[in-house]
Amino acid sequence: MPRELIEDSDAFITEVCWHYYVNEMTQAEIARQMNVTRLRVNQAIQRAKSLGFVKIKIESPFTQKVQLQEQLKQVLGLKRAIVGPANRAAYDYHKSVGAALAELLVERLATGEWKSLGVSWGLTLDATIQKLPSLKYPNLEVVSILGGTAKGSTLNSFGVASGFAHVLGAKFSLLAAPIYLSEGIDRDLFLSQDVLRQHIEKFKSLDAVLLTCSNVSNKSFLIEHGLPKGLTSERLISSGAIGDVLGQFLDRQGCSVSEDVDNRTVGMPLSDVMSVPEKILAAAGPHKVEVIRVACRRGLVDTLVTDDVTAELILGGDSSKLTMKDR
Description:
The protein has 15 helices and nine strands.
């Protein structure tokens, strides 16, 4: 359908506002990306204000791209897919997804169905915390489901769990352990300590989990700073690894590539994740396309939160508009 025939639609107006307020693009940048005039962008923003779409956040059922969402659901076997428009000229694969996940959390928490929320860690979840409004859910417990690292204090397990709890007005429980045990340490014995045993017991009653994933490259914080001594990205790749979920590395069939690594990982086993009622994966970026597909097809995901760039690539599209640096 020609762009000029849909410029005044609610969907068009909302996408303009998403780029303007969430992606922090200028009106000229939005006009170039959406192939319209700057005047039309300005008119859309003004009309959004008059319609009440823009308050503190963008409120519209058309925020996400419905066609992409439906295709992702069918291709990946999902219950729900949420796609946020990305800033393609200055691509950031955390910002748009973080904002979209924040909107989803506000919606789901308002139902009162969640009493216990398991959280992973990473820059995407850190970006989500920055976009959430201050809420009050004193009966909610945020539970970290993966050990942490000494680096990246705001984005590792400890910072993310406490950060969510603070903004949501909730309680939190930390998995006070490293993500990987040193070689030779008996995992079962280590986890038998009362404080850890009691924490891990909470995994069995989680109402939802927030997961992230990454590939095996220097774009992954885990690869750069979290691998145990003696384990390298080269070794993982040679074993067939294409990425990780909760520190457990998977091949193209969704199978673990290293029983040794799994046995040293301090966190929620992927087999336990599959029994959680709501499994939400927040991930975007061309480098994550393959591991997103694998995680979904393995059954680790009910709801995928991503951006339109990644959605198009998952569905077989072209990323040629992104620079090599963005990839």
